[in-house]
């Protein structure tokens, strides 16, 4: 088994300190091989927020692969937003906005769906679609192929449809045909796993959308608690995904993340 943890929408600047503390303990307990952060690492792309995020990410018990979210581009500083949208991100977090990482059992491909020309909605270009397609086709070792984006490629709620990444269907069809197994996303702060063959029955492979909720921000949506996803990869592309949600002291427990049976998804 090979364990990858998906954190998302950390939003340093609006972090709940109790949740962050519980997360540190949970991550130690889960002992991952890799931590992925699917964007919105800061709240307003401030220098202080990037510095705090960077310092915290360095304490994690595994390598980290992150990509930017729309909140990681300065919003009001227009000069910076349009001329150097990822300047702070590159300086304080990672020089690459589309990182690529290979582990024993997976190829993890970062895709930057943000653009300074849009406040919230994301886009995936034809060139980005081709890049992922080629990397997946080159996967001679038959490893799991995981795409990490910020904006969702499928939503469950009609109210979220305007948050779907533009060009999502073209990407899904090309990537599924090339052997992409999982498309990770964040942005809408709602965690779920969705088999894309339900929406597109003619897809050649059973590609899954795996959405992360906000892991640490107090700005949760629809009272959905903070969460993280645990992806356990087994041979022959078998996978077991669990969503762990934060339980506060107010619920009668010690502050911690726990996993309920209903939050499991598996092909193992
Ligand atoms: Fe977010
Ligand atoms: Fe976002």
Automatic annotation (TrEMBL):
Entry protein name: DNA repair exonuclease
Upper classification of the organism: Bacteria, Pseudomonadati, Pseudomonadota, Betaproteobacteria, Burkholderiales
Origin: domain of life: Bacteria
Alphabetized PANTHER family for the sequence: CYCLIC NUCLEOTIDE PHOSPHODIESTERASE CBUA0032-RELATED, PHOSPHOHYDROLASE
InterPro entries: Calcineurin-like_PHP, CNP_phosphodiesterase-III, Metallo-depent_PP-like
GO molecular function list: exonuclease activity; metal ion binding
Family per similarity comment: Belongs to the cyclic nucleotide phosphodiesterase class-III family.
Cross-referenced Pfam families: Metallophos
Domain Calcineurin-like phosphoesterase: 3-191
Keywords: Exonuclease, Hydrolase, Iron, Metal-binding, Nuclease
Keyword Transmembrane: no
Record keyword Iron present: yes
């Amino acid at each position: 088994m090979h364990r990858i943890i998906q954190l998302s929408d950390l939003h340093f600047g609006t972090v709940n300190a109790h949740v962050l503390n519980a997360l540190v303990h949970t991550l130690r307990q889960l002992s991952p091989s890799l931590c992925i952060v699917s964007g919105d690492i800061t709240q307003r792309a401030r220098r202080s927020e990037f510095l705090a995020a960077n310092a915290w990410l360095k304490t994690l018990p595994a390598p980290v692969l992150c990509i930017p979210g729309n909140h990681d581009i300065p919003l009001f500083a227009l000069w910076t937003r349009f001329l150097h949208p990822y300047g702070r991100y590159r300086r304080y977090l990672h020089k690459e906005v589309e990182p690529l990482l290979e582990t024993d059992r997976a190829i993890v491909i970062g895709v930057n769906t943000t653009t300074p020309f849009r406040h919230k909605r994301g886009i995936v270009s034809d060139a980005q679609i081709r890049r992922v397609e080629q990397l997946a086709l080159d996967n001679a070792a038959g490893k799991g192929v995981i795409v990490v984006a910020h904006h969702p490629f499928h939503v469950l709620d009609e109210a979220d449809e305007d948050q779907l990444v533009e060009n999502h269907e073209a990407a899904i069809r090309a990537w599924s045909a090339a052997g992409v197994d999982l498309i990770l996303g964040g942005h809408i702060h709602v965690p779920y796993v969705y088999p894309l063959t339900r929406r597109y029955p003619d897809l050649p492979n059973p590609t899954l959308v795996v959405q992360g909720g906000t892991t640490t921000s107090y700005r949760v949506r629809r009272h959905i608690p903070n969460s993280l996803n645990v992806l356990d990869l087994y041979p022959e592309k078998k996978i077991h995904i669990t969503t762990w949600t934060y339980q506060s002291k107010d619920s009668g427990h010690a502050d911690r993340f726990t996993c309920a049976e209903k939050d499991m998804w598996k092909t193992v």
